Amino acid sequence: MKKSRITGVGHYVPENIVTNEDLIQMMDTSDQWIVERTGIKERRWFTPGVDTVANMSAKASKMAVERAGIAMKEIDFIIFATSTPDYFAPGNGVLLQRELGLQGIGALDIRNACSGFIYGLSIADQFIKTGMYKNILLIGAEIQSSALDKSTAGRSNAVIFADGAGAAVISATESESSGILSTHLHADGDFAEELYLKDPGSSREVRLSSEIIDEPSFRMQMNGNVVFKHAVVRFQEVIQEALSANDKTKDDIDLLVPHQANLRISQYIQQKFELPEEKVFNNIMHYGNTTAATIPLALSEAWEQGKIKEGDLVCLAAFGSGFAWGSALLNW
Length: 332
Known about the structure:
This protein has helices at 20-24, 31-38, 53-68, 92-100, 116-129, 155-158, 210-213, 224-245, 263-272, 284-287, 294-304, and strands spanning 3-12, 17-19, 42-44, 77-81, 106-110, 135-142, 164-173, 179-187, 195-196, 221-222, 255-258, 313-320, 324-331. By secondary structure, it is α/β, with parallel strands linked by helices.
């Protein structure tokens, strides 16, 4: 059985930088309030008519494919993780396929929100291990800002969520020293409504109306306290699960790349595992929470900055809407 490994990573973020000072002009908040609760100083929001989920992911994908050292035509499957597709249907996989000129290959869309990239990585790993595909393009991309209530009433979410795209090429390898060691996936639908966007949903008499648009259900809803309490527990569990499954300890980790949900969550996990700062990569300070895009975006930046080297043991972990969570352990 073949192994799979990440051979290239890439990312793209919109040019529109929204600082905490910009948000102060929209709502009753302050830089201190935002930083203390989230660690975020600035984020990127898309420009309507310029950025789409498809074209942002295409730019990230081209970077990842180039870094993988293969031709675009060598990609034989697409996995697209997003909770904010450009269209209600079809999914974004085929839109990206069109952007990249890859018509004819399969394109799979998954909607696991914050943990979408981990779920996609697990799917890609299985496809490659069975020999079905050789080079899979995995994307996490989101435009969250258009669903935010940017008034004082919605500030708890509006200061956190942002837009961007990250991509990775997952390729077959026979290397003994590199590759994905294991992935671990979990979910608990009992908490689905603690972090969700209800409308527009199909199980309504009318899917969309002016009344629905004015309702809170048309904006992101999050019970921050519940999400935080579950996140810090599940992150610890799923990271330890990955380590135990491979007879590793926290001291073996060269770099932990957590989903960029909240800097306070990442710092809590870092403290619990007693990891030095250089072994945990965070960039939420500059990009906010880009949901499915956070891990590939962070991986791409960490690789650019030389913080991931060949042979490093890298742990990825995510928790979010669903609730769904997961981890992956890999040798770079």
